[in-house]
């Protein structure tokens, strides 16, 4: 019985992760960002009809020295909250976005990774399936 539940959970998790995509639309890769200046981070999320009913749990945005995997290091946290979509991209109700205006800490220089992690519970009957997505973009910080 436990093996069957494990297989169902693994399959549902696999389906959930292949049907959703977290991105960072802004800033563009290799953009220049100023220390202690503000940056606008635009986080779109594309989902399928099956994932549309997900319950948002957490969104974290962090900054790290260049080129680290967001699933292993989110860096210095500059936002913690929930993903609260502000609208649709191209009128598609399955592709939402949220804008964040954040301040770049003064202690990072050179190549910087903006790391984003989103955690939600997907409604995949008969189970609630955890859905964790990561995205990253590299920018250049200067004083």
Give the low-pLDDT segments.
Answer: 5-18
Overall average residue pLDDT: 80
**What is the CATH class name?**
Mainly Beta
Helical fraction equals: 10-25%
Signal peptide: 1-20
Keywords: Signal
Describe the protein's architecture and organization.
- The chain has 143 residues and is mostly beta strands.
- The protein has a single domain, classed as Immunoglobulin-like (Sandwich).
- It is 12% helix and 54% strand.
- The chain contains 1 helix and 9 strands.
- It has one helix at residues 2-18, and strands at 21-22, 32-34, 38-46, 55-65, 76-81, 87-89, 92-103, 110-124, 127-142.
- The strands form 2 sheets. A 5-stranded mixed sheet has the order 2-9-8-4-5, with helices on one face. A 4-stranded antiparallel sheet has the order 1-3-7-6, with no helix packed on it.
- Mean pLDDT is 80; it is low at 5-18.
Write the layout of secondary structure elements.
Layout: H1 2-18, E1 21-22, E2 32-34, E3 38-46, E4 55-65, E5 76-81, E6 87-89, E7 92-103, E8 110-124, E9 127-142
Parallel strand pairs: 2-9
Antiparallel strand pairs: 1-3, 3-7, 4-5, 4-8, 6-7, 8-9
Signal peptide: 1-20
Keywords: Signal
Task: Summarize the structure in short.
With 143 residues, the chain is mainly beta. The chain is built from 1 helix and 9 strands; from the N terminus they run αβββββββββ. The protein has one helix at residues 2-18, and strands at 21-22, 32-34, 38-46, 55-65, 76-81, 87-89, 92-103, 110-124, 127-142.
């Amino acid at each position: 019985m436990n093996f069957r539940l494990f297989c169902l959970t693994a399959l549902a998790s696999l389906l959930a992760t292949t049907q959703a995509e977290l991105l960072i639309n802004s800033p563009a890769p290799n953009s220049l960002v100023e220390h202690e200046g503000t940056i606008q981070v635009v986080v779109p999320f594309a989902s399928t009809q099956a994932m549309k009913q997900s319950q948002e749990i957490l969104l974290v945005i962090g900054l790290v020295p260049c080129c680290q995997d967001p699933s292993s290091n989110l860096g210095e946290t500059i936002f913690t909250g929930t993903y609260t979509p502000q609208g649709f991209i191209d009128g598609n109700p399955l592709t939402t976005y949220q804008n964040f205006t954040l301040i770049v800490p003064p202690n990072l220089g050179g190549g910087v990774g903006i790391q984003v992690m989103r955690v939600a519970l997907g409604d995949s009957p008969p189970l609630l399936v955890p859905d964790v997505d990561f995205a990253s973009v590299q920018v250049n910080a200067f004083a």
